[in-house]
Amino acid sequence: MSAEIAPADAGAELTVAGVSKVYQVRRQERAPRTTVTAVDDVSFTIAPGAAIGLVGASGSGKSTLARLITGTQRPTSGSVTFGDVPVSRLRARGLRRLHARVQMVFQDPYGALNPLHTVEYTLMRPCQNFLGMSPGQARDRVGDLLATVGLVPAAQFAAKLPHQLSGGQRQRVVIARALACDPALIVADEPVSMLDVSLRAGVLELLAALRRERGLSLLYITHDLLSARVITDELLVLHRGRIVERGPTKQVMQHPRHSYTIQLLDAVANPFASPATKGTS
Q1: What is the largest CA-CA distance in the chain?
Q2: What is the rounded average pLDDT for all residues in the chain?
Q3: Nearest to 231 by CA among 244, 221, 245
Q4: Where are the domains of the chain?
Q5: 187: which strand partners?
């Protein structure tokens, strides 16, 4: 059994073009409906193998964008395209094919895993559902997946239930499940925010290594610019549903131009800021 899974073929480009998402809400029973704009005219592209950071505080529209990209919601206007496929036009079968190429890593690793299923069962299912593997083939692949995310000896972890794992180990299982169907793009939505500080670096290092070794594209969604600094090439700063600043990660971190970006940086101890921007309000 090999310790690594063969890298996926080069992935397709993801294009988000003028996307908006407006919700109709009723704040009180029998009150008139009002509109809430969660995402407002957002455009960006993720080239194959690129790592983009989407940063902003809670309520800025980051998770809504993730749902639009993965096809679980449709935009009110604009378009999301993966390769030459318009995501918003896909139905059940098309979404199934999309989800084989675009996978999510969620914020809460315990909530993302069925507490009644072993790690082996959790990882076998996407191998069978997306790749058409037999039970025997899928079981063999589980060992490779666990080795890829650093959970060895694989046989020991395969038999465990989620509650028998640490938070960092659970998140590695979630990442292994995302890798199971050889995706081209991983959308990681706050993947380390619920982990102890001591575990975060290991998971970030794993995501960075997977991107290098497998040619994966990565959309890293976070409120923490310092973690985005570790694994992204470019930052998009989202505020009230709109992108207010974008640029190479190092440039945005050292020379932020928008007041909202400066506020995000001021909220954390930022060793990457230039002296001119430290303490700027």
Answers
A1: 62
A2: 88
A3: 221
A4: 14-26+33-266
A5: 104, 219
pLDDT at 11: 63
Question: What is the percent of the chain with per-residue pLDDT over 90, rounded to a whole number?
Answer: 63
Q: How does strand 51-55 pair with strand 217-222?
A: parallel
Residue 157 sits at the vertex; the CA angle it makes with 153 and 160, to the nearest 5 degrees, is: 155
Average pLDDT over residues 252-263: 93
Output 276 or 223, whichever has higher pLDDT: 223
pTM, entire model: 0.87
Each residue of 214-243: b (16+ CB within 10 Å) or e?
bebbbbbbbbbbebbbbbbebbbbbbebbb
SS3 218: strand
Q: Over 60: is that where the pLDDT of 276 sits?
A: no
Whether residue 122 contacts residue 173, with contact meaning beta carbons closer than 8 Å, is answered with yes
Which residues, 6 or more positions from 85, have their beta carbon under 8 angstroms from its beta carbon? 12, 94, 98
In this structure, the strands spanning 77-82 and 102-105 are unpaired
CATH pick for 14-26+33-266 out of 1.10.3470.10, 3.30.470.30, 3.30.470.10, 3.40.50.300: 3.40.50.300
